[in-house]
Specification:
The structure is a homodimer. Chain A is α+β, with helices and mostly antiparallel strands. Chain A has a single domain, classed as Nitrilase/N-carbamoyl-D-aminoacid amidohydrolase (4-Layer Sandwich). Chain A has a six-stranded mixed beta sheet. A six-stranded mixed beta sheet of chain A has the order 8-9-10-12-15-16, covered by helices on one side. In chain A, strands 11-14-13 form a three-stranded antiparallel beta sheet. In chain A, α1 links the parallel β3 and β4. In chain A, α1 packs parallel to α2. The longest helix of chain A has 23 residues. Chain A is globular, with a radius of gyration of 20 Å. The first copy, chain A, starts with 18 loop residues before the first strand and ends in a 23-residue tail after the last helix.
């Protein structure tokens, strides 16, 4: 009942890639060994009214993160704009782009230039009238490794996402990268243990949650602390239940959904920052402020992950013979 | 994104049962309306070497809880003995009893006498060589409402449960009682989001976790805080994910598994208490100490549960079309 080895500091680690010779079916192939340790960077940023400025800022921050030793970088949800879902306006579908497209090419180029794996949240135009909230994963050579389309779509006052985003149809995903298997989920997914489980079972060492969550100014005094705490708690629990690292990347700042001078009415949303990185036992190793732009860097250590799971062997005892009813809406016989 | 109504204090509430006349298929029947609010009591207790003494103590505490206004009472896991799973010894199967049996009759009588619904964890002898770790639910008239047999069975140093307990074959369960639907799970189940989900989906307003968890004395200084925090965090997360109350009932005290003078060698386990009761947004409303016997009383308020779920509508957006692979051991194609 004990993880016997403690986590070291989240300091910088030089990545060493040993080139191995593999013999498969008699043919010699060269394979790149995956790192046992690597650094991830969480870009907590604010988003202004000009999409091009936000993209340029993100590109700068990716370079900053690489200079700080990051091998994997994650940006917040829909970082190219203020959070436009504060109003329902069909004109705003113009913000979406196909993938590949101009933004994805710029981001891929930033990944290549800085030699980082990059997870970037994009408003994807898939077909006329068909849009997704999508996390794109870029390899460190600039290639697009794949897409995850947000599976759980919220709809709450000022978070009118069901208007914009068709629920994902690619399922839950972990991607093979030069940093090993990385899991991608997006914001509202963070409230669903099923999403974390199905991503972790694919072998992800870490789950990334690009996020846009904040307080309604009128409610913050009464409910703000409990809301933030519930959000932090449930995501730490995904780390614990699955024995994986978790990286949550939120935006900061008060926004009214201002896109080139056109805002939603009302008091807006105060995005609460608080991006964090926790280990496979839910220990928070790095955590951002509520109100400042920051780059958090943390270390993923596969030896620590292995050690945690050996001492708390939750995956060993899952009752997979009994979980099938989880595909029910309610178990009420109706 | 906001539970707009705050929880009141966990004060005592008089239960009022209105007798309603229901007309069903033309026949008039009398039905007891379920309470909108009720109090639950969590009995945090230490367990000595004499089983009869532990049972007598539990019976006293049930009466105490009833005097404090409890309508539902939950005892810790296997409260009749010290935690015997610290050693593997076939003689200890003698501690098990059939249900119904002597202990269950005594407990049912205590439920009736104190007019409480009672959740009691028992070492169940089902057949020669077939034993379970079972939560028995007694109605306030003393009748046995049903059994939940612990589904996830641990096996770790000093927690040799796989030797004693056959994994449950009744699935996850919520029971109809005079306090409405109550969910029962046991200890190691607390690390599995699937168990919480499958119990909550049956309509439980509250999940009970009778528990026996503690520190290895040699590890407490280095890992104790993280272990306790992970345990508390994941169970709060079950409340949040499912919009249900959660009641965790642990034992306290250092034990060597002493049963009538026969102990396991070694330093034993320090059971960490810390029983707690939290609301459907994971807010801890009552919490026990690490080292003292206590009775915690908290209020379940169905209006608050409804309100929490309306404002954080997680159940609305579950992607039940995509969860089927959760019945896999790993999603590794092997």
């Amino acid at each position: 009942m004990q993880p016997r080895r403690n986590i070291g500091g989240a300091g910088l680690t030089l990545l060493s890639y040993a080139v191995e010779v593999c013999v498969e079916n008699g043919a010699k192939t060269m394979a790149l060994a995956l790192p046992e340790k690597f650094n991830v960077a969480l870009i907590q940023m604010s988003c202004g009214s000009e999409p091009a400025d936000n993209l340029a800022k993100a590109i700068d921050r990716i370079a900053d993160a690489a200079r700080q030793g990051a091998h994997v970088v994650c940006l917040p949800e829909l970082f190219q704009t203020q959070y436009f879902c504060q109003r329902e306006d069909a004109v705003l579908f113009d913000l979406a782009e196909p993938i590949p497209g101009e933004a994805s090419r710029t981001l891929g180029e930033a990944a290549r230039k800085n030699k980082v794996v990059l997870i970037a949240s994009l408003f994807e135009k898939r077909a006329p009238g068909l849009y997704h909230n999508t996390a794109a994963v870029f390899e460190s050579d600039g290639s697009l490794r794949g897409l995850y389309r947000k599976m759980h779509i919220p709809d709450d006052p000022l978070y009118y996402e069901k208007f914009y985003f068709t629920p994902g149809d690619l399922g839950f995903r972990a991607f093979d990268t030069s940093a090993g298997k990385l899991g991608t989920l997006v914001c509202w997914d963070q409230w669903y243990p099923e999403g974390a489980r199905l991503t972790a079972l694919q072998g992800a060492s870490i789950l990334f949650y690009p996020t846009a969550i904040g307080w309604h100014p009128d409610e913050k005094a009464e409910f703000g602390a409990a809301q933030h705490d519930a959000w932090r708690t449930i995501q730490r629990a995904h780390a614990i239940a699955n024995g994986v690292y978790v990286a949550v990347v939120n935006r900061v700042g008060l926004e009214t959904g201002n896109i080139r001078g056109n805002s939603a009415p009302g008091k807006g949303l105060e995005f609460w920052g608080g991006s964090f990185f926790c280990d496979p036992f839910g220990r928070v190793l790095a955590e951002g402020s509520y109100d400042k732009e920051e780059i958090l860097v943390g270390e993923v250590d596969l030896k620590h992950l292995e050690d945690t799971r050996r001492n708390w062997p939750f995956l060993r005892d899952r009752r997979i013979d009994s979980y099938a009813p989880i595909t029910s809406r309610m178990l009420d016989g109706k």
